[in-house]
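pinned: reference chain
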Amino acid sequence: MWHDMGGFGAGFWGGGLLHMVVYWGIIILAIVLLVRWLGGAAGDRHDEAETPLQILKKRYARGEIDKEEFERRKRDLEG
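pinned: its C-alpha cells
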C-alpha cells in the first residue's frame, strides 16, 4: 500500500525530513542573528573609544592606582 503512494516512505525521509531540518535551521539562524544584531547595537555604545583620561579615571576609581600616580599621569596626559 505504501508503495502505491509514489514512494511515500522514501519521500518523507528523503524530502520531508530534509525540509524540516532546513526549516528549523533557518529559524534558529534567524534567532541567533537577531540576538547578535541586538547585542551588537548595545555593545557598540559600550565599546566606544575611550580617551586616555577616561581610562585613567576608571583605574583610579577601581583603586588600581593611588592619588599621586593619578595626578602624575594626568599631568603627563595634559602637558
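why pinned: Helices lie at 8-46, 52-62, 67-78. The radius of gyration is 29 Å.
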